[in-house]
Design a protein that fits this description.
Belongs to the recoverin family. By secondary structure, the protein is mainly alpha-helical. It has two domains: 58 residues, no CATH class; 125 residues, Recoverin, domain 1 (Orthogonal Bundle), CATH 1.10.238.10. It is built from twelve helices and four strands, in the order ααααβααβααβααβαα. The protein has a two-stranded antiparallel sheet with strand order 1-2. α5 packs across α6, α6 crosses α9 and α9 crosses α10. The radius of gyration is 30 Å and the shape is globular.
């Protein structure tokens, strides 16, 4: 056998044992498909995975919030009835407000209150978050309560309440007790009165300082802002 024949023979054997390009491509495609399928399954599992949040220790909650251990246990039992996974979503608040205000629409107000309790903006309110917010409303000083109410109205957290933000919150409150067709004029009058009293420098927004000063000096303003605060 000549050298050229040997070389040809070796080349043929190499081609026989070398995977073809199309086979490599098919293998790569299969790997990609498997990866995509795995990612899809994992994402689906994450989306449907039930919420389960373990509460903080009782002693730590009691120290931080000022509630007694017995009070915390009672509140936790009620919380677990509505939120068995240990954390609340916006949907968990809506049925409660719907029962309190069956003639109106409490959807907007429930979302606003949820956003105030959801301090880290992860879409969940743990029992610790809920208890901390509740302690400010129930056991906080006058300044702490006003600070919480300011946060309710300061929806984007920029330290100022705009007319748009106040219109939204006041509308949400009115909608709980009246039909939407009849409230807009009343809402506008309500907001106009509040801005007239609270926007002290007339720059079109209410700063935290203006808010606190106005509420401390005029109890009627605080009453108008907190007409539903005991129902939060």
């Amino acid at each position: 056998m000549s050298d050229s024949e040997d070389a040809g023979s070796d080349g043929s054997q190499q081609r026989l044992h070398r995977p073809s390009l199309s086979r490599k491509m098919r293998r790569s495609i299969r790997k990609v498909k498997k990866s995509i399928q795995k990612m899809t399954v994992d994402d689906g599992e994450e989306e449907t995975k039930p919420i389960h949040v373990v509460p903080e220790r009782l002693a730590a909650l009691s120290i931080r919030t000022g509630f007694s251990r017995n009070e915390i246990c009672k509140i936790y039992r009620a919380f677990k009835q509505h939120c068995p996974g240990g954390a609340a979503t916006p949907n968990d608040l809506r049925p409660a407000y719907a029962k309190l205000f069956p003639l109106g629409d409490s959807t907007k107000y429930a979302q606003v209150v949820f956003n105030t309790f959801d301090t880290n903006k992860d879409g969940l309110v743990s029992f610790g978050d809920f208890l901390t917010g509740l302690s400010l409303i129930v056991k906080g000083t006058a300044e702490e309560k006003l600070s919480w109410i300011f946060g309710l109205y300061d929806m984007n957290g920029d330290g100022h309440i705009t007319r748009h933000e106040m219109l939204f919150i006041v509308s949400a409150i009115y909608e709980m007790v009246r039909t939407s067709q009849t409230i807009q004029r009343a809402v506008n009058r309500h907001v106009d009165r509040l801005f007239e009293k609270m926007d002290l420098n007339k720059d079109g927004v209410i700063s935290r300082e203006e808010f606190m000063t106005s509420c401390m000096n005029d109890q009627s303003i605080c009453t108008q802002l907190t007409v539903f605060d005991d129902l939060w």
